[in-house]
Amino acid sequence: MRKTYNIAIDGPAGAGKSTIAKKVAKELGFVYVDTGAMYRAMALYFIRKGIPAEDEGAISAACREISIKITYENGEQQVLLNGENVSGLIRAEEVGNMASATSGYPRVRETLLELQRELAGNSDVIMDGRDIGTCVLPEADCKIYLTASTHVRAVRRYKELEEKGVICRLEDIENDIAERDKRDMSREIAPLKQAEDAVYVDASAMDISQVVARIIEIAREKGLEV
Ligand code: DC
Q1: Do 56 and 136 fall within a single domain?
Q2: Same domain, 92 and 189
């Protein structure tokens, strides 16, 4: 069996990683793996249990009660939390903030690492997250660090929420994003940072199709033969 080809995409919240990675996966016939969704599913469990994010002991103990599984329905990743499909419940801001706050704990990361590596070993994948190129798949064939300015990311998020009818202030979203970046980048374990061999892509002034094309171009430069 030939070795699988792995593309790792890391970057801050709101840079467009999942939108881009989904499209790249579709064009290349790869499986898209959204690791943030796994941290979010764990966060949902902690929220339901009423465990505060600061209580590392209780969070670590709760990890033993959690089983995360990934399945695909019509090509869309589904996350199962102890057998329950929670994909529709994990996109709330509250869940994202809890995921950001608890993903710095070693037990939380250990719970997911093996599953992430297993998925990459089984198929050609494009996997997005914060530490894919640096920790999860250090041998990935192609590594991308995808980012955009805080302002551009905040405006995108604002528009998304506006479309959903959620009333919010751009300034609050911008502050929220800056805070999340700081937390994701400054934690001790597996912080968000560009891997030495990752290609830096600043999408602030690019549209989706340009970023998709650029990533496929980089993958080809890195030996992808399709
Ligand atoms: O990409 P996202 O917004 O769905 O991720 C939610 C949180 O999960 C993010 O703030 C940090 C954490 N996360 C992580 O620590 N490592 C990853 N590989 C993916 C996400």
Answers
A1: no
A2: no
| Pocket lining: 153 vs ligand 1, CB cutoff 6 Å | no
Q: Is 122 helix (H, G, I), strand (E, B) or coil?
A: helix
The span from the CA of 9 to the CA of 212, in Å, is 12
Q: Which residue's entry shows tokens 């998304």?
A: 160
Q: CB of 12 closer than 6 A to ligand 1?
A: no
Interaxial angle between packed helices 56-63 and 106-122, expressed in degrees from 0 to 180 and rounded to the nearest 10: 30
* pLDDT tens readout for residues 60-72: 999 999 999 999 9
Residue 184, ligand 1, Cβ within 6 A: yes
pLDDT tens, position by position, 10-21: 999 899 999 999
Q: Is 125 exposed, middle or buried (0-12, 13-18, 19+ CB in 10 A)?
A: buried
- Same domain flag for 39 and 111: yes
Residues 137 and 44 in one domain: no
Q: How far is the CA of 139 from the centre of ligand 1 (A)?
A: 20
- How many domains is the chain built from? 2
